Every structure is written in C-alpha cells, then in structure tokens.
Amino acid sequence: MKLYNTINRRVEEFVPLKQGVATMYCCGPTVYSYPHIGNLRTYLNEDFLRRTLMRAGYDVQHVMNITDVGHLTSDEDTGEDKMLKAAEQEKMDVLALARKYEDSFFYQSQALNILRPTKVCRATEHVQDMIEFVQKLQEKGLAYVSGGNVYFDTVQFGHYGELSHKDIDGLQHGARVEEDANKRNPTDFVLWFTSSKFENQILQWDSPWGRGYPGWHIECSVMSSKYLGEYIDIHCGGVDHVAVHHENERAQSEGCFGHKWVNYWVHNEFLQLKDIKMSKSLGNILTVDSLKEKGYHPLAYRYLAMTAHYRSLLQFTFDALDAAQKSFDNLTARVVEIKKDLSGVVDEEAKKRLLEKFDKAIFNDVAMPQALAVMWEVVKDGSLNSATKWAILSEMDSVLGFSMDEMQEKSYEIDSELQALLDERKKARQEKNWAKSDEIRDTLKAKGWAVKDLPDGTAQLIKV
Ligand code: AMP
Ligand code: ZN
User: Fold this and answer.
1) Which residues crowd ion ligand 2, with CB under 5 Å?
2) pLDDT in tens, 221-257
3) How far apart, in whole angstroms, are the C-alpha atoms of residue 8 and residue 6?
4) Ligand 1 centroid vs 311 CA: distance in angstroms?
5) What are phi and psi for residue 191, nearest 5 degrees?
6) For residue range 163-183, what is the model confidence (pLDDT) as tens digits?
7) Contact call for residues 263 and 17 (beta carbons, < 8 A)
8) What is the SS3 string spanning 162-194?
9) pLDDT at 364 > cutoff 80
10) What's the alpha-carbon Rg for the chain, to the nearest Å?
11) Whole-prediction pTM
12) Is there a contact between 26 and 115 (Cβ–Cβ < 8 Å)?
C-alpha cells in the first residue's frame, strides 16, 4: 500500500511500525458549531483511508480528539477562544455547548457511514496530562515562562518548519510585527495560558504556572501518545493544519520524546465553498442535515466526496451534488436489481480479477475516483451474473461504505393528505407566496418528508 507523505513530499510504501497494526491519529473537530460539509470531507477521506487499511488486513487503531477548549479564532495564539465566544453567543454553558456539537458531529458522521474512531478523547478531560507534558518540555529546556504564559521555544527545538518546509530563518529574522511581545521567537507558541492573557476565561485549571488553560496544540501531542504511544504510523488532518497546528504538534512531541514521532503525515485538501455564502448567524451553514432537508441522501454527499482524490480541491456546487445524487440513485436501483436473484454460480476468476483492480486503486494512495470507476465496471458488466456481481460489490462496499446490503427499492406511496399539501404548496409558489410555501415545507418536514423542487416546476417528496 502506498501513501503520500507530506513531510517527504512523495508517495511512499506504507510500512507499519508493528506488523498487522496501523495506528492512526486524526485531529478532531472543535465543537463550537455544527460541522459543515467541508469539515466532513476531511473526515470522509480519513474514513476511506481507514477502511482501505482494514481491507489491507490491518487492525486499525484510530484515535480522534475533541477540541473543547483552547482553539482560538486564529490557529495561532491570537483572537478569542472559539468555544467561549460561541457559548456567550448562544447563552449556554460552555461544556453543554461542547456536548451538543460533539453529538451533532457523530450524528452527521454516522449518517455519512463514517466509522467511529476506536478511541475518542476530549481535551477538557486530559488537562492534568497536558500539564505534565508541558513540565517535561520545561525540564528539557524547550519551554519558557514569559508574561505569565508558557511558550514552546521553536529555535531551541531545532527542527521547526520541516513538515511545512517553512523557511524558519526567514521567519525568525524577518521584520514581521509580532503581536505577542512575550515570545522569544516569532514562531514560538503557547503551551499554557494563564488568566493574565484572558481574564474572564470560564474554563480554568490550577497549574504550576498559575490558574489558566492549555494552548490548542498540546492536546494532540498528549492524547495521541497516551492512547497510541510515542510512535505513530499515520497522522491525518486538513491541509490548513500543516503550517501551524501540525508543525507545533510535531515540535512538542519530538521535543518531548527525543525521537521521530509520526511516520506518515496525510493531509486532506479542502472542499471549496467559494460561491456559497455560509453564515452561522444566518442559519445557512451547509451540514448533512441541511442537505437532507433539501432532499438529498447523506450518502449522495459521500459519493460526491469519492469523486475527487483526497489531495485535490473539490469545488462544491449543487449541480455536482445533483449529479452525485443521480449516480447514487442509479447505483441503488442497480444493486436492488442485482440482489433480486443470487442463485447463479460465482465466477471466481472474474471476482479475483476485478477485486484486484479495485485494490490496486485504493492501495495506490487511496485513489477513490478510480475505485468508483471499477465499481461501475462491475455493476455494468453484461457478462457477469448477479451472484458474481454481488460477491464483488459486497466486498468493495467494506471500503465504499454505501450500505449496499441495506439498499432497497423505494416503496412508499404518497397518500391524499400529502398530495393535498404538495398541491397547496405548488399553488402558493405560483402565487409567489413564499411564506406559505415555507410553512408547508415545515409541515411536511414534521411528517418526515423533504421536498425537492425540480427544474420542471414539479416537486418530489423524499423520506428523511
Ligand atoms: P475544526 O473543527 O475547525 O478544527 O476543523 C475540523 C477539520 O476540518 C480539520 O481537519 C480541518 O482541517 C478540516 N476542514 C476545515 N474546513 C475544511 C474544508 N472547507 N474542507 C475540508 N476540510 C476542512
Ligand atoms: Zn491536532
């Protein structure tokens, strides 16, 4: 199996530290808001990787953190704490808010068939471990106290910038105006904030440096080593994490352990939502739930994510999602047809050949678009009987994650009450009475139906 390794900028053969086991640490969500479909693209890609490793026979140990403290509005040490800001806006207790969005994250992940990590750990439940980690860094001369806060000394570490290939000398000696005068070097970052930085911080803990709270990056070094040990096979996250968050995690971990920490750094490109304005205050951030309300199946979004390689930008448009929904519906219909008669004899030679082709794609840096193409080759192959197709597809589905075994014919009837509501809504829309149209949409939603307006002016009901 081959994987692209950010630190070496090349595709490399995956060699695990321990035979038969793959350890994987993925930076989890900051639970201050609903996860949007961009965040979820990253978690979908991590799911494709995890399932690929499982197909390759590895026992995957997958750890993910939940950031419920310390992540500031900039990924560096400036701005407000995202959690506290949201708690204030929503007038909610900060931990209650964290649990609300954590639940939403897992609910939406589940709808996308993303496997739950084998271990999920919350930052606020590991603060003592973080304090001990920072103490070790201090003992090693890699951390210093300044202005009441504790900072990591990136120059002392000596290998800072290697992951993102940053020109650290340029950064150190550049004429950049540094916002935090307490730092010895511009790239240094906070390990522990005391209340001297944020006076009204609600989440605070006692520490050897005074009452305060941890910086954002330390949690990942601490929780990954607590649950996976000091050596990790794979570390994942979105590309935005390379330059700051992962560079800092690496400096902390390698500084503390005194050796290489991660063998493969895997980074997911963004879902671009350029032309779609999302704003939490307007209540229009694109989540899996909002796609469902618009009449899309969550797995249509999973399908869409699979059409682009994880290292390519994916531009989100509703046209692209419509196309993915159409392909997913088509797949559902074909799979239902295939499952109707499985009485034939499985062509073992064809099964082996096509699964090898599929594996070649996924084992080559998780090439999901090619894997999807092989899936369609099987679905459409007129020379294969249904038993053979199903034998192949059900194996592929362990990686694709479309729940093919649960795919069923859509067998619902629109009763007269629903039809009356649809007719009423159509009339309201013709009269441009949008308030009435929205009201009927809500009534239908309460009854478990989403309405999808089709280009020809008709509407379709979708069970949600
Ligand atoms: P956060 O909750 O902000 O810490 O982000 C959670 C994950 O989503 C991180 O791995 C980010 O890199 C990733 N992420 C954020 N925005 C996007 C996006 N538009 N497309 C893909 N991944 C993203
Ligand atoms: Zn992290």
Assistant:
1) 27, 220
2) 999 999 999 999 999 999 999 999 999 999 999 999 9
3) 6
4) 14
5) -100, -35
6) 998 766 655 554 444 568 889
7) yes
8) CCCCCCHHHHHHCCCCCCCCCCCCCCCEEEEEE
9) yes
10) 25
11) 0.88
12) no
